[in-house]
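Handout, section B. The chain below has 257 residues.
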Amino acid sequence: MNTMTLWHLSGWEFAALAFAALLVGFSKTAVSGANTVSLAIFAAVLPARASTGVLLPVLIAGDVLAVLTYRRHAHWPTLWRLFPAVAVGVVAGTLFLMWADDGIVRTSIGAILLLMAGVTVWRRRTAETPRAPEAVTTRAGRLKARSYGVLGGFTTMVANAGGPVMSLYLLSAGFRKLGFLGTSAFFFLIVNVSKVPFSVGLGLIDGHSLLLDAALAVFVVPGALFGKWAVHRINQRLFEQLVIAATIVGGAQLLLR
């Protein structure tokens, strides 16, 4: 029995998941947060609750490639500041998943996608007005880091959708492109790996899901390589507009399903 038969996937459905995996690789090395489109595809093709467990190892594969590409540009003081708050958010997300059924998870993912699309639109508009980065050593800076950390931990545990939250935080903290990519690469590798025991305990990751992951991980590599090539060439403004539109459509589809 092959992977497609095991998951009752048609050729078009597997192709959609393969494209989503390729987009994961691209987002990890070029446009962070673009994998919200992958999240919508996975949740549309697979049962919503199970999709979070299947997507997680694919994201980890992309994280490894991103770390190998941008490891010299990470800002560790920022990472250490975020991790305690993120842990609180991950635990809260785990407790939520313990009682939420597939319908609630699907609705939650749709709502999170629409929220993240709104956050991204707000980020792009405010980014047009230059302002001094907020010092993370101030009380306001620490409160901001904790707030984003908890929200990022919760959204990444429930829907693997912490990317836009962390993108907004890192950009507002004044990170430039390479520092942004390096810091987010280590952040998501560590956070996503730490989520694995929780996902296994919830039954979201098992032998069947890992078999599908093995087939999809192959597509992450060309996406990451293309992202590395395109990061200095891509028209990011247009791409973000397309990502926002696709995210809104995906979120609305899940809410109306």
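Note. The two ends are 30 Å apart (CA to CA). Compare this with the example in section A.
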